[in-house]
Design a protein that fits this description.
Chain lengths: 450, 263
């Protein structure tokens, strides 16, 4: 209710409008910063902006965003220069020079800020709001500046979309095509700086970088396409901007920066967990599913090979089926896991009990399970063969990432490989289940003699 | 005389490249004729990749001059295609194979313009040429190493260049990809295009390339493979290491080595 009333207020509407555009523009730019591996740059620029803003206030005594933009811009450029110069001319790596520069500039900024607040007019300056942001303190003129700058940023990204893509993906190739990558990098940097500066008052120096990176990272969880990612990131930025602003206006003295960051992070956490392809849960489910499948296949293979061996070496002995413990020994897994897999396979109708002794169940294939196992073992052995004799199969177009080999082969190549399997004595023996059907039925009298 | 009638695809004079004061390439002088497949061979750290980056102006050079078809590189960019090392980019980038190939068109599009339908069709054609048409919409991280290499190759084809530079295209690819690349290189040669390939497998040099540049911080030898790729020049290029390498090379290439000594 309260929030609804707040929304009716034209002043709040303006502020929200500003925050939406702020969120969109930093979300969009953040994508390129993130993909270019410049995630920390926004943070450095924001911290570096503080002394610039303070100096402008000390010099002019005015609090217009336009002037602050200039001050923050100059300080940001100086910081960027320091970062690149330190990493270029010394043996210090970029992350270290970034940390150095960021803290020094922020330190200077805090000293200046404290000085301003202790001076006569300083109390009313409201500059302390620049640390953690206060969207409610935006006045109409500020909102207009934010909107204009954000609009410019969005338009420039739209125009240079192709060039920025090249810059983030493969700058070396881009230079070869004749695009000035250094210049584009500088443009991107300058735009990041502008996004940071218009966010300073609303979000604050300390947390404005999160507006750049969090929506971009969140968007990456939902798409594999850059154009969609940019749109999504802008959307997440806008929504978290609005949510954060609304929450912070509800509470006396609650700064906006943290609430915006927390809303953005909520989206991020949700995506991290529940994104259908890259999310943690989806990956866990996929992993567990794959593990179960591999276990099932291994157990089937073990049962198949055990059966094969029995037919080969002791064709006349009584076939009673095989127990979980024995299969576990054969494929080197825990008995409990094998037992579990056998139950699973039973449910699928691939294996069935043949006999049951006092302490364990002995299993065999069903008439449905045997061909499946046969296909599995054949595929396994064909792959083994392929990898053993790879030189010989050079000329075949094989995608090793596919699960099955046989469908990828021509009849000719397949028959060659089958002949080789025979030569190695690796041909799976139980192809025709009709011939072995007596092995498949359940036997109540404790096994049939073969 | 001959240079006035038709300009060479690549002419490098006195090229020197230095990283941090230490010269990596010194006074490289090469002239490559048209329509050749050229292997650039040399030990690790000999400046092979540096060479092809420097002639394309991708890294600053200390001195020297490169001409592409008789004019400085800057004016001839559209005639040059480039396949960088596969490891040089992040393959988890949110894009698919077709979009990567489309990047090859960006140079022709120039600033601000987006690729249109004609570009897409052309990019598809290039993908088909490297046998990757079925993978056009596959996210690039889902491709195998060899497939990624083919996508890079297709991107270079999309540049419609006359002169190609390829940085270790055979590194870590499967046999099928190697075969596909070689087939493509020969097609390019038939179209009178010139291809310079950084190559590390001495065994296949004679089979793949009709020209060889032996490089070890300077040019040891450059010319038709039979003339340049001799055990004497290899000795000069690889120095002490050749005994190990050389055994292998001489073992497999002994018939041709004998022919050379006979003739």
């Amino acid at each position: 209710m309260n929030m609804w009333q707040a929304l009716q207020d034209p002043n709040t509407q303006w502020v929200l409008m500003g925050c939406v555009l702020l969120g969109i523009s930093s979300g969009i730019l953040g994508c390129f910063a993130f993909l270019r591996g410049r995630s920390l740059m926004g943070d450095a620029l924001a911290h570096a902006a503080l002394p610039g803003v303070c100096l402008v206030y000390l010099l002019t005594g005015s609090k217009s965003i336009g002037l602050f933009l200039i001050g923050a811009g100059v300080a940001g450029l100086l910081a960027t220069y320091c970062i690149t110069a330190i990493s270029r001319h010394t043996r210090i790596k970029e992350d270290t020079s970034l940390a150095l520069t960021l803290s020094v500039f922020f330190g200077i900024g805090i000293v200046l800020l404290t000085h301003i607040q202790h001076s006569a007019s300083g109390n009313q300056s409201g500059l302390d709001k620049f640390l953690f942001g206060q969207a409610a303190s935006l006045v109409f003129a500020d909102v207009v500046t934010i909107m204009v700058v954000a609009a410019v940023l969005i338009v420039v990204v739209a125009l240079l979309f192709k060039e920025f893509t090249l810059l983030s993906f493969d700058p070396g190739f881009g230079r070869g095509l004749g695009f000035p990558m250094g210049f584009l990098d500088a443009v991107l940097m300058l735009m990041l700086l502008m996004a940071v500066v218009i966010g300073l008052q609303a979000v604050g120096v300390v947390l404005v970088a999160a507006m750049l990176i969090t929506p971009a990272v969140t968007a990456r969880y939902w798409t594999d396409e850059l154009s969609k990612m940019v749109v999504l990131s802008g959307f997440f930025g806008a929504v978290s901007g609005v949510l954060g602003t609304l929450i912070s206006t509800q509470q006396e003295n609650l700064p906006t920066g943290p609430t915006i960051v927390l809303s953005a992070t909520a989206f991020f956490l949700f995506s991290l967990l529940f994104s259908p392809r890259r999310g943690v849960l989806a990956r866990m489910v996929r992993f567990l599913r794959m593990r179960r499948k591999i276990l099932r296949e291994d157990v089937m293979q073990a049962l198949y090979e055990q059966l094969e061996e029995q037919l080969k070496s002791r064709p006349t002995s009584v076939y009673r089926g095989f127990g979980a413990a024995m299969l576990a020994r054969k494929c080197g897994k825990r008995t409990a896991a094998v037992r579990h897999a056998l139950r699973d396979l039973q449910k699928r109708g691939y294996v069935a009990e043949r006999t049951r002794t006092d302490d364990e169940t002995l299993w065999t294939f069903t008439s449905e399970g045997l061909p499946v196992a046969h296909r599995l073992v054949l595929n396994q052995r064909l792959w083994d063969l392929y990898h053993m004799n790879q030189n010989q199969f050079h000329h075949l177009e094989i995608d090793v990432n596919q699960e099955e080999l046989a469908p990828q082969l021509s009849d000719e190549a397949l028959s060659l490989m089958l002949a080789q399997l025979r030569a190695y004595d690796l041909t799976p023996q139980l192809a025709d289940y009709q011939g072995f059907s007596h092995l498949l039925q359940q036997s109540n009298q404790g096994g049939l003699s073969l | 005389m001959s240079t006035t009638t038709k300009a060479l695809p690549l002419q490098v004079r006195d090229l020197t490249v230095a990283y941090q004061k230490k010269p990596v390439l010194r006074s490289v002088h090469v002239e490559v004729p048209e329509g050749k497949l050229v292997g650039i061979i040399g030990p690790n750290g000999a400046g092979k990749s540096t060479f092809i980056k420097a002639v394309q102006g991708l890294i600053p050079v200390a001195s020297g001059e490169t001409q592409i078809y008789g004019k400085p590189y800057r004016q001839q960019r559209k005639l040059v295609g480039y396949v960088p090392q596969r490891e040089s980019v992040d393959w988890d980038f949110p894009t698919d194979a077709l979009d990567v190939v489309l990047m090859g068109r960006y140079g022709r599009l120039g600033w601000f313009r987006r690729p249109g339908k004609a570009d897409r069709d052309f990019a598809m054609e290039c993908l088909a040429k490297v046998g990757m048409a079925d993978y056009a919409n596959r996210q690039i991280s889902q491709l195998s190493g060899g497939q990624q290499q083919r996508v890079f190759l297709a991107r270079a084809l999309a540049q419609e260049a006359q002169l190609y530079f390829m940085d270790e295209p055979f590194a870590g690819v499967d046999a099928a990809t190697e075969k596909a690349i070689i087939q493509l290189l020969n097609e390019l040669k038939q179209q009178k295009k010139t291809v310079l390939v950084v190559h590390h497998d001495l065994q296949t040099v004679e089979e793949y390339f009709d020209w060889a540049i032996l490089l070890n911080r300077r040019v040891i030898a450059a010319g038709p493979t039979q003339e340049a790729f001799t055990s004497e020049n290899l000795q000069k290029t690889y120095g002490g290491r050749l005994h190990i390498m050389g055994n292998q090379v001489l073992l497999t290439a002994s018939p041709s080595a004998k022919e050379e000594t006979d003739s």
